[in-house]
Amino acid sequence: MTSTSHTLPAPVALRAWPLPSAVPLLALAALLAAPLVLTPYLSDLVQKIVIFSVFALSLGLLVGTTGLVSLGHAAFFGIGAYATALASSDAGPGSMALLLPLAMLGAGAYALFVGALSLRTKGVYFIMVTLAFAQMAYFVFHDTHFAGGSDGMFLTYRPVLAIAGVTLVDLELPLHRYYLAAGALAATYALLAVLQRSRFGHALAGIRANEQRMRAAGFNTYAYKLAAFVLAAMLAGLAGFLMASKDGAVNPELLSWHESGAVLMMIILGGLGSLRGAVLGTVAFILLKEALSSEALLGALAGRWQLTLGVTMIAFVALMPKGLAGLHTQWQQRRKENKHEH
Known about the structure:
This protein has a domain at 23-257. It has helices at 23-33, 40-66, 74-87, 96-118, 123-143, 174-197, 199-216, 221-247, 257-270, 275-292, 295-298, 305-319, 327-341; strands at 153-154, 160-163, 166-170, 249-250. By secondary structure, the protein is mainly alpha-helical.
């Protein structure tokens, strides 16, 4: 990657939430305390939200920061999950120190191949190429028997992390799985926050704003985009490892375009270009899905939750064009407009 002495453009994709920076720390504290007061069902639901938040943050790096809309991101999520299951042993628990890097590197390796080809296209062509590669990966796992075919496969033993014979993390224990997922979310959030403020992050934001200008300034935009694509895939692979460890099973639906579409809706709902938005969008999307598919709340209408969820999403996007993360800014703008009118 080469650059000149030109000043990097301001990171236009990174919108700050006008609230104190302590908010993420308070949210993390609440997340860590949650298992102490929640029922097992709610604790499992929160863990699912946490894992999908990692997944959403990984896609946010592509869509919100770099301006690369991908409909095949679930392929890396599924590859991370399958790498965990395939490398696990039936004879005893596998080592997390081996399985976690394997899941992330497996997803990153496929992303390097996909990105090297797909990043030579732009716009709708890039979207379709990423979708095509994701479907190829989906059918490899769905139509072949080495990974269980359409039924998927189970993990006989969940991974453990042991040092000198002392087990530090045992993912057979629900509390260990929960806190590992929470730690992964905190680490992913912190990594992306640092990245956004770095020279690399500013370069990605500049590419999103005007790639031609960045090339004219001497930046190898292809290399920057490929690096972002691979990093996003590795973080999706991390989420895949967490999901496989949580459920103790994997299936081809983890790689389907439905999963890619769902996580894309999460970051749009939360607000593109915002780390908080990716997390908020994930929370809102999963809770909406849970509520709209609950017969206790909606009765017979729960059987048509896809329809009601679709209508709800349309309403949210229409009423909140900047997403949940932009609500405060949107409210302030309306207050100013009302003052000017009076």
